[in-house]
Amino acid sequence: MKLLYFGDVVGKPGRAALTRLVPELRKQYAVDLVLANIENSAHGFGFSPEVVAELEACGVDLFSTGNHAWKNGEGVRMLEKNPKQVVVPENYLDPLPGRGYTELEVNGTKVVLLNLIGEVFMEGRTQSPFRTFDRILEKVGPEALMLVDFHAEATGEKRVMSWYIDGRASLLVGTHTHVPTADAHIMPLGLAYVTDLGMCGATESSLGMNKDLALKKVADELDVRLEPPTEPTTVTACGILVDIDEVTKLATKIERIDREVTL
Ligand SMILES: [Fe+2]
Ligand SMILES: [Fe+2]
């Protein structure tokens, strides 16, 4: 099974990158499943049904999120209907709308996508992401092919998670920092792992947000609201291409797919 997973999609520039790239990458690599983190896809904060429809139209099948999942009212109303194709972090303590994991069948194999949130340098009250993984794995059963998005700030926490679930899951991607890491590899027991996918968004930006607004907010300490740049000329899409043996559930290949698109 071949799949593509893209990091945090930031606003219209991020969506433009995927709209351009996903159809050709799907064809080029004969991909079975395309996933993306959409916590910043609606103008930088949250997602909306329109955004999901736009990304589905270009060939993205499944969506994970993170701490910004509930920042858009339309997105929250969508989550209240429990959509099957969108997951939110499973291990927040406070009850928030949305499902933490979803199951689907790909080429006759039961695939589960689980979304977890980190506890180091992150806001919100949580249960252990480690014990939460155990709990969900027990629920879905050992026959499931597990894909995990661990949305977390600390690289060390994500790396420890890779050791915790190696041999029990097929893929672990880190998201949230918006900065891609160069450590994509197969772990000793067959887990494909990367500490952070990076983002899909404007190239000349600060983590996908307008750099001038970010300068005002961070360097000048002004109370400005960040938003993606409106007219970027270049957009970046960061993600990975993974190959997983459907019988053994072991990953056989992981490589970075980082592309720049001129609009
Ligand atoms: Fe993000
Ligand atoms: Fe985040």
From TrEMBL:
Record InterPro entries: Metallo-depent_PP-like, YmdB-like
Coiled-coil portions: none
Signal peptide (UniProt feature, chain positions): none
Keyword Metal-binding in annotation: yes
Keywords, comma-separated and alphabetical: Metal-binding
A Gene Ontology molecular function term of the record: metal ion binding
Cited Pfam families: YmdB
Residue positions of the active site: H68
Binding site for Fe cation 2: E39, N67, H151, H176
Protein's name in the database: Metallophosphoesterase
Record keyword Metal-binding present: yes
Binding annotation for Fe cation 1: D8, E39, N40, H178
PANTHER family: 2',3'-CYCLIC-NUCLEOTIDE 2'-PHOSPHODIESTERASE (PTHR36303)
Gene3D superfamilies: 3.60.21.10
Organism: Candidatus Kerfeldbacteria bacterium CG15_BIG_FIL_POST_REV_8_21_14_020_45_12
